[in-house]
């Protein structure tokens, strides 16, 4: 059964009992039957689709291999668009560069490049925890200052805390190895080059 409307053709075909095939085409504008199918009498729209659907299967397989989809009832189409966009981005990049790229590596670089601007913005927040700041600078490729506090395996007393607090911490300066608690990290980073690191 065929249906025609404004340059589109809809075909309904039963290839076997209990299996109905519905196809909509903007390339075919008649009710032609593919005579090579003999007694099955399949429409040309159906046989043409069967010959050219390989790309659809390949894209579906690529989407399933590296997918950003999450279990949700609200964003299924959005995640599908992201997956297809990633595949298209790789194809365009390979054409521009002139060489094949490993999908895993490409998606990793793509994700980092999309997040880099935001990571650079967050790295400027003065109250950001030191451990998180180190990770941001690592993945964003930001040069680390010599006086940035980092976490170590050992524990020691904070050099800024008073005797009354006697606070111990695992955070220390990577240049002078003195311990500094989280409360004084911001003060430490701002003053370390002149007031602390040079005293050690």
UniProtKB/TrEMBL annotation:
Per its record, how is this protein called by name?
Answer: PiggyBac transposable element-derived protein domain-containing protein
InterPro entries per record: PGBD
UniProt domain PiggyBac transposable element-derived protein: residue ranges: 16-89
Native species = Rhamnusium bicolor
Top-level taxon of the source organism: Eukaryota
